[in-house]
Amino acid sequence: MPLTFSKPDPAAIPLHLIASDQLDDALAALPDTARTWAQTQSFKAGHGELLTVPAPDGTCGLAMVGLGSAQDRARTRFPLAAARRALPDATFDLVSDLPEDALAAEYLGWLLAGYSFSRYRTSPAPKARLLAPQDPALAHRLEVIATGEALTRDLINTPAEDMGPADLADAAKALADQMSAKIEITEGEALLDKNFPMIHTVGRAADRAPRLIDMRWGESGPQLTLVGKGVCFDTGGLNLKPGASMGLMKKDMGGAATVLGLAHMIMALQLPLRLRVLIPAVENAVAGNAFRPGDILTSRKGLTVEINNTDAEGRLVLADALALADEDTPDLVVSMATLTGAARVAVGPDLAPFYTDSDTHAESLSRAAGKTADPVWRMPFHAPYEKMIEPGIADLDNAPSGGFAGSITAALFLRRFVDNAPYMHFDIYGWNPTAAPGRPKGGVGMGARALLDALPDMLDL
Q1: Which has fewest Cβ within 10 Å: 61, 63, 201, 434?
Q2: Which residues belong to any copy of the Cytosol aminopeptidase domain (predicted)?
Q3: Domain region containing 345
């Protein structure tokens, strides 16, 4: 089902959003029959609570959805989305005095609640429709964001059998074709010829050859380079993961999926910038030619890396891609990756931790996160931990022993490969473990909406 708003409909039914702490005033403003019905039905305007008011002919004449209390809204996003599938087959027109940003978030939540992953099994689509916001530019922006988010979700939800490196490259090609972007794919042994040794090494044991995806769009403006981890499946390599840890590894390309969804948003909205998207697409497999613990690899940048755990492969492929990004001297480099379990232990599955040396960028992103219902949390590039990633036998250690500060040391590792541009790194989860309003269980974008909203500040657009 397209994630779009309904066309204009003069017969649209009013749909009122009502906060529980403003219930009496809201009911007083309604027609007498609606107010009496709400009181008879003990409507409390709880978070996502739905009440439909019948018209004289028995159809739905008016609907109300509860926003709950301020505490409810802080705990669970998108109350309107929670009610969408329970609404009848009709077109509705939203009525609310919410602030602009909060109202936009409810419109977005409505669109996101229309998503379902239907590649292998169809699911009933919600029947209710909603008129677009009165501002056409806002309506277009929200539809673009929802479509980009759906792309991210679809890519993550697709199992590795159908989403290997070639399939991920095909998805990038389809996006490039749609948006008239340029794309170049470097595959297999050509990675060595073009000096991407760590991407090749990580992916060489798989039957499906590794790739580097390089997409460019835009002719003028500041340059933004997005780098996404595209590990299409991660066995852990010779440091094999236990089965319980391997079960979700189709999502280990969540960084790539997120930057492709974000790239869709940027291009569809015609932001005045030059965009480059780099995705190292690999499988970390087990075979006789797999890289080994104790190996020392030489990166594109020339830094040597001691392999102390083959399951810390994401930072290796990202390192070569980041080195390439840095050679271009862009105005901002952003990497997104499902990189460490340490990040999940630190902030759980719902927050997107990010790293930056720029207080200004951090403040812009944090403000944008609040506006877009896309929570993020700043983590530190803590310089005293640099020695933890320096093994002595090589320039860098891909998996410092001890287990402390795992997300920070991974971020510090990646920062070593960016010298010529401001750098921001997201250590995302890319998966929603429990269904929530507008966010079904499964793949999910994290940080993309906040970053999209913050880009004008970060790049002076």
Answers
A1: 434
A2: 309-316
A3: 143-459
